[in-house]
Design a protein that fits this description.
Elements (H helix, E strand, L loop, with lengths): L7 E5 L13 H7 L7 E3 L11 H17 L7 E6 L1 H15 L7 E5 L15 H10 L6 H7 L4 H14 L6 H4 L1 E6 L25 H4 L3 E6 L7 E3 L7 E3 L22 H12 L25 H11 L3 H21 L5 E9 L8 E8 L6 H4 L5 E2 L6 E7 H6 L3 E8 L9 E6 L13 E7 L18 H4 L13
Parallel strand pairs: 1-2, 1-3, 3-4, 4-5, 5-8, 6-15, 9-15
Antiparallel strand pairs: 6-7, 9-12, 10-13, 11-12, 13-14
Helix pairs in contact: 2-3, 3-6
């Protein structure tokens, strides 16, 4: 809850960070801007332990902040700045604290926040990643944090659904309680010659997509009889900025080491880069990248000025005005970079009790019944490794909208004849009034499947004439004669 100008700042870092210097000069710039050093706090949390989850880290954050409050911290004049995975942890903490009736911070600013996950999450759980971490850092990979970071994870979908419902709460909307902001970079040029395609996606900072960093998003619900979608959109947009200027572009983190340029792998990587940029143009390869936070060296740089602009918001009118200003600035960037204006669509299938659908087929179609992969789909759809009935698509928005409206074709099956879904769906995800995607945002499409287990149990009448002959017969399959 707001109690006046910002007097304290908490900095919450991201996945795999292991030293306090990960913020670069940002703490010093904040101090030079008028904050006392005793009012600037640097977080240090464990993300490379295979048993720690984002929920665990949110609970640990509550433990620490509660102790700091007892020592005198006033959350009403405090801003929390989060980077990468720190955004997920802090947002989970914020919802939990709000539900418990605790005091909330004045401002929350997610910078390159993995608010909807990261394409690198699955890469981080590979055997090669395990070997790398053990040999170079003597750590685990942080398996459960990475599972939470995977597109469409139960953690991410639950968090964002609860967040959106709290945001739109008619009685006490979240956005009036805590002024929330998001920004991201778009420079993935340093990684153009790397073999790892996940770091070279158009419309990303090399780790987090712009759509994944954006605190603006929507849900579309499809349930029986599947005749129309039910949209859930934000009643008030959150200020979101793509912090890029002609003078300087920003990546997820700074990189200064030699790239693979000039070695044999570079040729192969060039081909892989073309595949990763289907339908768009790869950026020119750079020899250095500047992180959107730790790469800031002067207060004039756009990300730092954006932080100060966010700090200055002290009422709802100013919040709405800044949302419009950042939206306009980002649109100017988008007009100059149409290949980078992309969106993520996360389609999930679950039954009434949220049980996993093991076997599913999900296709996106345009109004002519054709799959829209050729013109707009970037890369390949990504299936969630833990929940296989969740698939994410990455599309270029201008090309995707050119084939508007869209529908989904979904089939859901089980591997047993005793439980069925009987779901073969061709349903709308956009119509004349509601587009299914928006520039640089995520759309969650939730499909509710009806689980039918009726074939798993039968009765036989004691009066059945053939009962004696089948009494000792093992089932299944069920012998004939059930009532």
């Amino acid at each position: 809850m707001h109690a006046g100008p910002i007097q304290s700042v908490l900095l919450v870092h991201g996945y795999s960070v292991r030293s306090l210097n990960s913020w670069g000069r940002l703490p010093q710039l904040l101090q030079a801007g008028g904050l006392a050093p005793e009012a600037i706090f640097l977080s240090a949390f464990v993300s490379l332990d295979d048993y720690v989850t984002c929920n665990d880290l949110a609970a640990a954050l509550e433990h620490q902040i509660a102790a700091m409050e007892r020592a005198g911290l006033d959350l009403g004049t405090t801003a929390i700045i989060c980077h990468s995975t720190g955004a997920l942890v802090t947002r989970r903490w914020l919802l939990d604290r709000r539900a418990a009736g605790g005091k909330t911070p004045s401002h929350l600013i997610t910078v390159a926040g993995a608010n909807h996950g990261s394409t690198l999450a699955q890469l981080g759980r590979t055997e090669l990643a395990h070997v790398f971490r053990h040999l170079t850092e003597q750590t685990d990979v942080g398996k459960r944090v990475l599972e939470d970071l995977d597109y469409g994870s139960t953690f991410v979908r639950t968090l964002n659904r609860e967040w959106l419902e709290a945001w739109n709460d008619g009685g006490a909307p979240l956005w009036k309680d805590v002024y929330c902001f998001s920004m991201g970079g778009a420079d993935h040029s340093y990684w153009q010659n790397q073999l790892v395609w996940q770091s070279r996606e158009a419309g990303s900072d090399g780790t987090v997509r712009i759509s994944g960093a954006n605190l603006n998003y929507r849900f579309l619900d499809l349930a029986p009889p599947y005749e129309k979608m039910t949209p859930l959109v934000m009643t008030q947009p959150a200020p979101h900025l793509v912090a890029q200027t002609p003078d300087k572009r920003y990546s997820h983190t700074s990189q200064h080491d030699a790239d693979t340029l000039g070695i044999v792998l570079g040729t192969v990587a060039g081909v892989a880069s073309e595949l990763a940029h289907l339908g768009s143009k790869p950026q020119p390869v750079s020899q250095q990248s500047f992180g959107i936070l730790e790469g800031i060296v002067a207060p004039e740089e756009r990300p730092f000025r954006a932080l100060i602009e966010a700090f200055a918001v002290q009422d709802s009118d100013a919040y709405v005005k800044l949302a419009t200003s950042w939206y306009d600035e980002t649109n100017v960037w988008g007009a100059a970079n149409p290949d980078e204006v992309n969106a993520t669509i996360v389609v999930s299938i679950a039954d009434e009790r949220n049980a996993i659908v093991d076997d599913s087929l999900i296709l996106i179609r345009d109004d002519q019944g054709l799959q829209s992969i050729s013109a707009s789909l970037l890369g390949v759809p990504i299936k969630n490794e833990v929940t296989p009935s969740v698939v994410s698509f990455y599309v270029n928005v201008p090309n995707f909208r050119a084939a508007h409206p869209h529908s989904v074709h979904i089939e859901a099956r089980t591997d047993t004849p005793y439980v069925s879904y009987s779901l073969t769906l061709d349903g709308p995800i956009s119509d004349d009034s509601a587009h299914s995607v928006t520039d640089n945002q995520v759309t969650y499409v939730n499909v509710r499947a009806v689980r039918d287990p009726s074939a798993a149990l039968v009765f036989y009448s004691l009066a059945h004439p053939g009962l004696a002959a089948i009494l000792d017969t093992n089932y299944p399959p069920f012998p004939a004669g059930s009532v």
